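Before drawing any conclusions, I looked closely at one protein, both as residues and as discrete backbone shape codes, quoted below without any editing:
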Amino acid sequence: MKILVTGATKGIGKVIAETLDGEIFTTGRNLDLLKKYKNYLAADLTKPEELIKLGDYIETNEIDVLVNNAGAYIWAETEKLSLKDIQSIINTDLTAPLYLISRAANGMKKRKFGRIVNIGSISGVMGEAGASAYSAAKSGLIGMTKALALEFAEFNITVNTINPGWVETELGSNSIEDSGFSRDEIIDTIPQKRFVEPVEIANLVQYLISDKAKGITGQSINLCAGLSVGC
């Protein structure tokens, strides 16, 4: 399988790209970090011309599996969000995934095979005060996933979203600083009293793209150490 992972230079995306079985294609903004991969294309998903170029790359390389991992996060009181902030979050976290799926769809339909996994967030399931744009975009991924799963079902294409909670990454650490809470205070709200490890997400992606999971589609799966259940 030919697998494209967006946001593959660090964090969850890096671990996904290093874990999955198949011919890996990667994209991200940092060219130097992408060079360790055999197949890569540097792209900023907030820039239309670069997003279109990435779409061309998907079609040219006949990508079978698309992992929409790249994301952006801003913590701010809503009244302090600028139009630029809102557009950046929505473009990266929702518009780009839908566009890239639209570019992958024709080839997947012709080959009668495709796997699409979107990396969402528990903030799109439960909501997060101070992250309204992010929560809105990630919630949108869930609705998009359901619609596309129905649209693509007859072509042996599955579409699912994984919603991580707090993850042991640089972004997770930065989010702690932005939140105004300590790490211990946040861990105290998580039923399993721990952050999710990126490899847990990568392993779930591996399962969802395998033939064992061919009947799973249109699903929003919370991988959050119990955070979505309550504390």
